Model the fold of this input.
Amino acid sequence: VDGGMTDANPSVFAILNDENGINTSSASIGHDILATIDDNPNKAYSLNEYYQSDIDNYRQGSVDYGLFKLPEGAHTVTLKAWDIYNNSSEKTITFVVTQDNNIIIKHLLNYPNPFTTNTNFYFEHNKPGQFLDVLLQIFTVSGKLVKTINAPMTTDGYRSEPINWDGLDDFGNKIGSGAYIYRVKVRTPDGRIAEEYEKLLILK
Done:
């Protein structure tokens, strides 16, 4: 995802679609499915053999390729692919490699926001494949705690599973419309903690 956060060993994942089919032949010089890191030709990787077409659909498939030991900081990845008639398309996204030791959460949001009866909370983190003890708390703007949700999870990627809230307080009662503050607190098995705050709006 553009602007996403990863550890030092992320994967390039892309879904490719073309009405004429994807060119995966290495015989076509310069027409490989190519992933280039930081616009560096020395970090350009042919992904032809990593392309998997969908079952019974030659027009669409995906690639999944692992990168290793990227330095901390901002990076770009550009993916370029060709159809069988030698037409090309490319996409570039940015991402940020964070330190491996500390748990970091970013891009905390809930959707929809505003909402009336249900919303889902999401965040990005740098601990894919690890168990995360996630605590979500909703407060009034004056600081009164109205709802607590425990949501332990393990995710394959860098984005959390959705945490659903039906707009009810801890006693099962509807809370009033207006603005609220929520906090997500994430703890790793070795005791490292990160937390973020955001705002939401409930409408009648």
Q: What stands out?
A: The two ends are 33 Å apart (CA to CA). The mean pLDDT is 93. The longest strand covers residues 57-66.
